Amino acid sequence: MASLFCLFIWSLIVNAIPLSSAFGAGLSSVQNATLSVVHIKSEAGGIVNTGNQGFIDPQTGRAVILSNLAAVKYERNGVGVIISSLGFIVTNLHTVKDASRITVTFHDNQKKEAALVYEASGKDIAILRFKPDIFIPAIEFGNSDHLAVGEELFTIGGSSLTDGAISSGKVIGLSWENAATKEGVPFVNMIRLHFKLNPYQGDSGSPLLNQRGEFVGFIAAAQAGTHNPVYALPANVIKKQYLKFLNSRQTTTKA
């Protein structure tokens, strides 16, 4: 079984095509979807032991072990998709898990703080919420069950090298299950695509769009190296988790 790596380590760069290039009839629809795509930066930190020191206490004669502790800070970058104009964003959980601070950047470079409000760890799905000041368009869900092998899909990059670039790839498999993430979470009903990979960070969570610009999934993981398959979570699975989240909020409110 090939080892897979989450795409905050391996990011997607796929035949990047400038927005001015022609995709045919679907170009304007795919371009419009960029308004609903955000860049995500999550920050986290903690205390680590950098080593131990031992000495004999002269008063007690006992051995004393002291740990050298140091504060560490790290950040992860990824992509999110606005799925509700009320301020809900969906992305990969591995990008934002355990974050102490999450910042989202919109298409116009406006930045806002966001909070993690729902997570489905077994599916690597997270829902964030921000407070919108103005109307921000939400992406339109497509039916991922209608995808076909050989179908061309598009994605919108979020790393420093693919930021805003529309890229294309083809579906090479559906309902893919014989794989596992780096954390050992099994892939079930994943979309398998053929893309090129390069070792750059920041494209995890990039949306998959059909010719109509509808959201049919997001990139979740890939095999290490170039010319290897990319795995995406279908939009129907994501939507099911979103509806589950909304239902839980309504139940809590009624209670």
TrEMBL record:
One GO MF term attached to the UniProt entry: serine-type endopeptidase activity
Residues making up the signal peptide according to the UniProt record: 1-16
Database matches in InterPro entries: Chloro_Bact_Ser_Proteases, Peptidase_S1_PA, Peptidase_S1C
SUPFAM superfamilies registered for this protein in UniProt: Trypsin-like serine proteases
Keyword vocabulary terms for this entry: Hydrolase, Protease, Signal
Superkingdom per UniProt: Bacteria
The keyword Protease appears for this protein: yes
A GO biological-process term: proteolysis
Keyword Magnesium: no
PANTHER family: PEPTIDASE S12, PROTEASE DO-LIKE 8, CHLOROPLASTIC
Protein name: Serine protease
